[in-house]
Write a structure and sequence with these properties.
Number of domains: 2
Distance between the termini: 150 Å
Order of helices and strands: HEHHEEEEEEEEHEEEHEE
Helix content: 25-40%
Oligomer: single chain
Largest sheet: 9 strands, mixed
Number of strands: 14
Length: 264
Amino acid sequence: MTQPLPPDFVPWEAEEIAPPPRRKLKPGIKTALLCLVVLAVLAVFVFGSLFRIRTVTIYGNERFTPEEVMQQAGISYGISYFTVTDEYIRDHIGQNHYFIYNGMEKRVPGILNIYITERKERANVYVMGINYLLDEEGMVLRKNTDGLQEDLPAVTGMQTRSVTEGKMIIPGNENQLKSYQAIMTELLAQGYAGEIAELKVSDPEKLYLLTRSGYTIELGDGENLRAKIGTARAVVEKLEAMGYEGGVIDASVPAIATYTPADL
């Protein structure tokens, strides 16, 4: 049963509560905030631009162009400064066996220097009827399907167990490889590699060179090669000046050489 309302009852109505007035920023604070926003945007832009590689210089390349080295190194213009690390470049460049990575240098803003050495084709070696090109250390650089590369000496007498492109040749006799490395290093140091047609290493105690002008140079063992090769060079030059052609030069004793003409 509904109870009657008292005569003085007035229904309650919710009053609207006005929101508090917004505080207005002072002009100086507005300007400061605006400047902070602008500076933040500029900082992002400058940071992104400053820490990008824009200049790349390659040192040590001869056969390959800077662009080819950059591509192998995984570097492109605009790459992040922080992406480029020594390990990053080493891992990429190491995939090409023609390159020896010597280090890199980063400079702010946006400058990268990369230092390499290129392996060079120094000699021919025949294995199972196939000609391969080696560098002076015995790294197999590539298979030469055209046969002998005539401007390079041929290595003869080397027993081989494994020949794989991009890896060191594995000889049956380790001393044969050591002899090759020692002789080739000295020939290059003396600028005489181009005059040699054949380098025989079958017996590391009886090493031979055959010059392109037809002289056989007996080196004996692999000791004192600088003196032996230097002496043989001087003798060859003297004999050629005297009109002799071919023959045998025994340079197995350092600084001493004997000559036997080809017709004896």
